[in-house]
Amino acid sequence: MRAEVSVSRRWVVKIGSALLTNDGQGLDRAAIAGWVEQIAALRKLGVEVVLVSSGSVAEGMARLGWKRRPKAMHDLQAAAAVGQMGLVQAWEQAFQAHGVHTAQVLVTHDDLSDRKRYLNARSALLALIGHGVVPVVNENDTVVTDEIRFGDNDTLGALVTNLVEADLLVILTDQQGMYDADPRSNPDATLLSHARASDPALVSMAGGSGGALGKGGMATKLRAAKLAARSGAASIIVGGRLPEVLTRIQRAESVGTLLTADESPMAARKQWLAGHLQMRGVLVLDEGAAKALREKGVSLLPVGVREVTGNFSRGEMVSCVDADNQRIACGLVNYSADEARKIMGRSTDAIVSVLGYADEKELIHRDNMVVF
Ligand SMILES: Nc1ncnc2c1ncn2[C@@H]1O[C@H](COP(=O)(O)OP(=O)(O)O)[C@@H](O)[C@H]1O
Ligand SMILES: N[C@@H](CCC(=O)OP(=O)(O)O)C(=O)O
């Protein structure tokens, strides 16, 4: 299993507040430099990395001289706004030393649950990765309210893993991994090396809430691993202070706790796509496109579409049928119904001249499509 992890090509690395801020004493720049050095080395081996960095509230508290995590939402928001400045500065500076660009990406729950915004966030993150930039993601704490907060970045890390279809979610924390009981209150607890994320026995082993600075605790990390498994990704919960921790994961060393998915990424994603969304429209394909989708599983380009029915928006689910109305596939569409009608039957190059702009060149990308 560890060997499979070592060949994974896209990682989301989530770093918790306690770890990043030296238990609240301000950003641990030496630790940050160490992780960045490892990430730079991973990139040279062809591993793409998206960072999910907590610590805005904790760093804001340190900057404002607050000893305790505030309870009031406006104070949390204020601390997050102050701290986020320090956070991105620290990451940017550390990556600059390796000639790597970073990008600040702040998201809310709405961004990832709304279909259109989901696609937008996805294409922006994939574009950043494609340009060799390391996205540094956090929750947009200053604009979210109580009910819609992810609250803990473990969940955010898992959703980003689903979003960019990463193979691996690495959760760096202040313990060596997941134990069979909370090691803070059970000194005899033993470290779990490998389990299935779906194993029901794990739930009672993960203690409740997190430390003084973080929010999640082990329960949210376990939940995150289950969420990541929905798109087939494995998760590793591991001590972020372990020397060369990321490099060792890449070398298939048995560090931390590996939580694996029951299904392959493709099977998991297709199940997710097929089970979660309502059809909003139909695209009738020409013979060539129908054959290409059925036999080669390629993306659907506008040129292969003859007719568009329904009134869908970008990001919604549509079904693809052949001229005899036989269902071929379904998937998340990159253009609205009106746009699709304008560009159907046209070559990809014509999208800009017809619409005046272009999103993706595909009408439905094959990663967002299930072929029946
Ligand atoms: N079974 C367990 N194994 C390891 N840690 C656990 C377990 N149950 C609860 N915990 C607690 O979870 C804490 C890590 O969560 P948290 O404080 O939220 O960290 P982070 O800021 O890294 O997200 C650990 O310090 C530990 O006390
Ligand atoms: N968005 C928040 C993260 C919430 C949080 O505390 O997460 P974590 O430490 O990962 O459990 C922040 O940056 O402070």
From TrEMBL:
Record-linked CDD domains: AAK_G5K_ProB, PUA_G5K
**Residue span(s) of domain PUA:** 281-364
Q: Does the keyword Amino-acid biosynthesis apply?
A: yes
Describe which pathway this protein belongs to, using the record's wording. Amino-acid biosynthesis; L-proline biosynthesis; L-glutamate 5-semialdehyde from L-glutamate: step 1/2
Tell me which Pfam families the record gives. AA_kinase, PUA
Indicate where this protein resides in the cell. Answer: Cytoplasm
Tell me the domain of life: Bacteria
Q: Which InterPro entries match?
A: AceGlu_kinase-like_sf, Asp/Glu/Uridylate_kinase, G5K_ProB, Glu/AcGlu_kinase, Glu_5kinase, Glu_5kinase/COase_Synthase, Glutamate_5-kinase_CS, PUA
Q: Which residues are involved in binding substrate? A: 54, 141, 153
GO terms (molecular function) for this protein are: ATP binding; glutamate 5-kinase activity; RNA binding
Q: Which UniProt keywords apply?
A: Amino-acid biosynthesis, ATP-binding, Cytoplasm, Kinase, Nucleotide-binding, Proline biosynthesis, Transferase
The reaction(s) catalysed by this protein are: L-glutamate + ATP = L-glutamyl 5-phosphate + ADP
Q: Which family does it belong to?
A: Belongs to the glutamate 5-kinase family.
**Which NCBIfam families does the entry mention?**
proB
Q: What is this protein called?
A: Glutamate 5-kinase
Organism taxonomic ancestry: Bacteria, Pseudomonadati, Pseudomonadota, Gammaproteobacteria, Pseudomonadales
The gene name reads proB
